[in-house]
Amino acid sequence: MIDKLQELKKRALAELSGLELPEHLRAWEIKFFGRKGELTKVLKSLQEVAQEEKPRLGLLANQVKGELKAAFKACQQKLGSGLKSRKIDVTLPGIKVNRGHWHPISIIQKELEDLFKSMGFMVLDGPELESEYFNFEALNIPAWHPARDIQDTFYLKGGDGDNQSASSSLRRDGWLLRTHTSPMQVRALLKYGPPLRAVVPGRVFRYESTDASHEHTFYQVEGLMVDKGINIAHLIAVMKELLGGIFKREVEIRLRPGYFPFVEPGFELDIKCFICDGQGCSVCKQSGWVELLPCGLIHPRVLEYGGVDSKEYSGFAFGLGLSRLVMMKYHIDDIRLFLSGDLRFLEQF
Ligand code: FA5
Q: How far does the centroid of ligand 1 lie from the alpha carbon of residue 53, in Å?
């Protein structure tokens, strides 16, 4: 035990004298004086030595402890004062802090907001946690309607939703994660009334399997314009302005009939796939076209749900797939990259 104590003292002092920076002191202290430190262990083992040996060894152990503590204090003072006298070159460049930057979806969202503001549209925000009433029913999709199956939905357990409609006995009045930004059509009409021009960018959710062009969480921009005499010509003019403003080049589009219960007539506006230049790839599912911009004239029943007289007013609405638009703009070939959190991807923007 005596040899052990002497050896420990010698080694601890040698290590202490070798320390050059104040930040190393803590590690030394833990090594010898910590809860499981070397000296602590020796002191604990004193309990096991023979009774007659205890006074002598106890004295020695306490001496070693005292000497090491004193040496530690002296070293603390020496290194501490060394730090005070150390010169700091204030002209050296500072440590660069990495500043964040906008996500590619936010970049395009802001561009779109500016574009629509310049055309007199309001930019609105809507709830991501939505009632079945606004997500479906007020959009002319009652509970029995097969169109509900098109959008696989994350329903929430419990809750009564918004008790807005007394009409349908089949209505479940539950809460869900909104499957599209369209619920804001009726919410905005109820709040502001016509004439109305508004866009609503936002995150939407669908319970579906993912692939290169499908995510469970993605972004849309809803747009609507309601006034007297609004027709398809207004819709096409605004769609053209939108695509020209974002792509700043000629974009090949095709318009085909599309079915959405909340518009009549309804269209699907597709753009030629930028990833493969129309040749066919995983993003456009080998078709050469990307479904981007469903739109149409707002169904009279939806206007009525929004408290608008459909005989006096008409309007158009569109639901732009923002995530897919960003993919086309930056030639991104997999939608899953957006939420991957991969800095190698994000730092390119
Ligand atoms: C809708 O969501 C309608 N609310 C759009 C609408 C609004 C029609 C107003 C008429 C009037 P759809 O389910 O097709 O429609 O989605 C709209 C766009 O969102 C699609 O064209 C596509 O670009 C994008 N989208 C749809 N599902 C996904 C998905 N899983 N991942 C990424 N983008 C998607």
A: 85
